[in-house]
Amino acid sequence: MPMKQRVLRTILATTTLASFSLGSAQFASAEEQTQQTSNWTIEDASQIERTDDNTAPYIEPDFEKIAPELHVWDTWPLRNKDGSIAKVNGNYVIFSLTASADLLPGKRHDVATIRYFYSKNGQDWTLGGKAFETEEAYGARQWAGSAMIEDGELNLFYTATGRKGEENVSYEQRLALAKGDIQANAHDVSFSNFDHSIILEPEGEYYQTEEQSNQGDISYAFRDPWFFEDPKTGKDYILFEGNSAGTPVERSLDPAYIGSESFQNDYELEMEDFAKLFNGSIGIAKATNDEYTEYEALPPLLEANYVNQELERPHIVTKGNQYYLFTNTHEHKFGPGVDGPDGLYGFSSDQLLGEYEPLNDSGLVLANPEDNAYQAYSWMVLPNGKVISFYNFHDLDGRNIADLGATSPEYQMNHFGGTLAPTIKLAIQNDSTKVLNAGKPGKIK
C-alpha cells in the first residue's frame, strides 16, 4: 500500500525513562518523544470490508440476561493501575451503564446510571447496585468511563452529562472522577465515601467545545474517559472521545485527510459542506498530579476528519513494543462516500503519542455479521485478548437502525438485548487481527 501522508502536529515531551518489562515485552530507554496527531484517512476507510477474519458469529438469543430488570450496555472492568484486570479479595468487578428495562431502549441514555457487578470466576456476575449515589455525582446522568484500583482506593472515571436540575435534557459532557473506598469479602463487594471531581473540559484549541459544535455540527462528544499508565514512561493519562476543534465554517479539506498522493489524484469529494461535519477524534490528556484530578490536554492521538463523527470508548492494549488503540463507531457515523459497519476499529503504533496506522489496512477489527448488523456494540478489548460488548438491537427483519422509531414499542423492546453479549476472543499479531471464537457472555477471564 502506498505510503500515507498524515497531518502531524508536534509537541516535545521530555521524559526520563528506565528500561523495564511488561510480561515478555522489553522496552528500551528514551529521552524524548514526539507527539504526532495521526489521521484515519479516506483512503484507509475506503478499504473497509467484512471478511471471515473480522466478522463476529451470529448471536443466538438463547442466554440469560445479567440483570433482567435492567437495560445493561457500556461495560468496563475494574483494573489495576498497570491495566491488568484487578481482583479484590477474590472478586472481579465490572461497571455498566444501566436503566430500567421498562424504558424504551432509545430513552435509556437520558437516565443512565452506573451500576456494578462482581464475580468470583470472572464470568458469573452478581448485581451489586449503584456504584455511587447519583445525587452526589456530577451531571444530570453519568455516562461511560473506566475504573482503576490503587492502594485499596477506587478511581472511577465517568462522563458527567448535562447538569443537575436542568429543565430539558442537555448533552453537555465533562470528564469526572469519583474516588471511593472498597469493601470486599467472601460474599460481596461495596463502595463508599466517594469524593467527586471534574477533571477535564474541552478548551476549544485541540477539542471542540459545545459552543463551537452548536454552530452547525450534527454531533458533539467529549466523553468516555479511560485511564492509562504508559508502561514505557510510567506517566499517567486519560484517553477520551472528542471532536476536532473549531466550527464547520473554519474547516477545509486537507489533502492529508484523503490519503496518499496516488489516491488523492483519483479522489473526488462528495457533498463537501456535509462531509466537513464529520470530525471525530480520540483525545488524550496527561495527569499533572498524583490524585488524578488535574490534567493537561494534549493534541489528539487520532482524528477522522471527513471520515467519521464519533470514535467512542477509546482504549489501549499493549503487546510487545506496540500500542494498540481501539475505538467503536456506528455505520451511520461515517461521512459521505465512506462505508463501514457498526464495529470495533483499531490502530497501532510503537509510541503512545503516535504515529498510528490502521490495523488490517482499513482499521476494521470486528464487525457484526451482515444479516444481524446491530447485534452487539461498545466493544472493549482486554489485555488477554478477550473482547466484551453488549447485546444491542438484533434480528430486525431487514430494517435499518434508523427505521426502529417507526416500529411499535413492543417491537423495540423485543429486539433489544440490553445485556452482555458473548465474549469474543481476538488474536493480535503485528498490524493484523483475527476473530477466533465467541464464548460465554461477559466472560473477562
UniProtKB/TrEMBL annotation:
Cited SUPFAM superfamilies: Arabinanase/levansucrase/invertase (SSF75005)
The protein, known as: Levansucrase
Species assigned in the record: Halobacillus alkaliphilus
Any GO MF annotation of the entry: levansucrase activity
GO terms (BP aspect): carbohydrate utilization
Keywords: Calcium, Metal-binding, Signal
Keyword Ligase carried by entry: no
Family named by the database record: Belongs to the glycosyl hydrolase 68 family.
Binding site for Ca(2+): N279
Keyword Heme: no
Site (Transition state stabilizer) residue list: D224
Pfam family, one: Glyco_hydro_68
Catalytic residues as annotated in Swiss-Prot or TrEMBL: D74 (nucleophile), E312 (proton donor/acceptor)
Binding site for substrate: W73, A144, R223, D224, E310, L311, E312
Signal peptide stretch: 1-30
Co-factor(s): Ca(2+)
InterPro entries referenced in this protein's UniProt entry, alphabetically: Glyco_hydro_68, Glyco_hydro_beta-prop_sf
